[in-house]
Amino acid sequence: MHSEPIRSSDQLIQRAIQIAKDDRPKTVVVAAAQDADVIDAISQSQAKGLLTGVLVGDKAAIERLADEHGIEIKNLEIIDRSDPLEAAHHAVKLASTGKADVIMKGFLPTSAILKVVLDKRYNLRGENTLSHCAVLDIPGYDRLLNITDGGMVVKPDLEQRIQVLQNALVVARALGCVPVKVAVSSAVCQHSDMPPERHAELEAFLALTKTRCTDVVLQGPLTLDAATNIDAARERKAEGPVAGEADVYLVDSVEEGNIVAKTLIQFAGAVFAGVIVGAKVPVSLVSRTDTVKNKMASLAVACVVAEYQRHAQAEVRS
């Protein structure tokens, strides 16, 4: 297993390429692949030696889009399934039978592909709810910051929040973080400044993590600046084991996570790598607004997580 922590998007992409060289490229299967941005991301990532791509979708539409956008697809396997839902089922079946390591969303709603992933007949359900990790390479920060959950769980209750944290720990450990430093988000840094009900929720969460999570250091409440900047933490009298060095920023709602992550991407030039975790295989999504680097980083983090899960599952079996 990789021991040195991955601290940048460049290192993340290189780690995925190294996994491919050491063993084999991870196979990424795209459900409903008739989407030019997705085809381009897969094509460029395969050309870099990062992965092996399998496109499941409307073959005629895939070939037409590739021709229109100048995308090289001759080295990509294409499985012709014109109906998007049928393509999703075929892609998920490949993953469930070990023929693919990562599932990627193509031209269909996120809810549709995730419903198929969770279909009991494919046995890809994990113990936890699905959640989204936005792994950001932020200029000026000396490590990757995983903001979760900004895409799946709208307003997690106590149990869901523990599961979101556990999913984030999988991603952080795949990135080589030991122990994982987790900041619990807040608008304030002092318990005394929190409303009583929010303070009670935080205390219950921190107590439960002690029995449910290992190799993790938590600190909260912490504002984003205190979690990522030690001088800000000192100013707010919030020094501690996580302050200024957070690997994970655990937010309170999907809106908070989404706004924080997108603000850092839009205005701070952060490189974004997003992945959905909680199933037995990671699920990758890219957006039309993502840069080429972001798309490649998102595929890379999914491949790195898949490798970590492969080792973890092998250890359980042994």
Mean pLDDT: 94
Q: What percentage of the residues does DSSP assign to strands (E)? A: 15-25%
Q: Provide the CATH top-level class of the largest domain.
A: Alpha Beta
Helix content: 40-55%
Low-confidence stretches: none
* Approximate shape: globular
Q: What is the CATH topology assignment of the largest domain?
A: Rossmann fold
Number of helices: 11
As laid out across the biggest beta sheet, the strand order is 3-2-1-4-11-10-5-6-9-7-8
What is the domain total for the residues? 2
What summary fits the major beta sheet? Answer: 11 strands, mixed
The count of DSSP E runs of length 2 or more, i.e. the number of strands, is: 11
| Radius of gyration over C-alpha positions, nearest whole angstrom | 20 Å
**Span between termini:** 16 Å
Helix/strand order: HEHEHEHEHEEHEHEHHEHEEH
Structural class: alpha/beta
The CATH architecture of the largest domain can be given as: 3-Layer(aba) Sandwich
Give structural notes.
With 318 residues, the protein is α/β, with parallel strands linked by helices. It folds into two domains: 1-126 and 279-318, Rossmann fold (3-Layer(aba) Sandwich), CATH 3.40.50.10950; 129-276, Isopropylmalate Dehydrogenase (3-Layer(aba) Sandwich). It has eleven helices and eleven strands. It has helices at residues 9-22, 36-47, 59-69, 84-96, 110-117, 158-174, 196-212, 224-228, 230-235, 254-268, 292-317, and strands spanning 26-31, 51-57, 77-80, 102-105, 131-137, 145-148, 180-185, 216-222, 248-250, 271-277, 283-284. The chain has an eleven-stranded mixed beta sheet, with helices on both faces. Helix 3 links the parallel strand 2 (51-57) and strand 3. Helix 2 packs across helix 11 (292-317). The radius of gyration is 20 Å and the shape is globular. The relative contact order is 0.17. The model has no long low-confidence stretch (mean pLDDT 94).
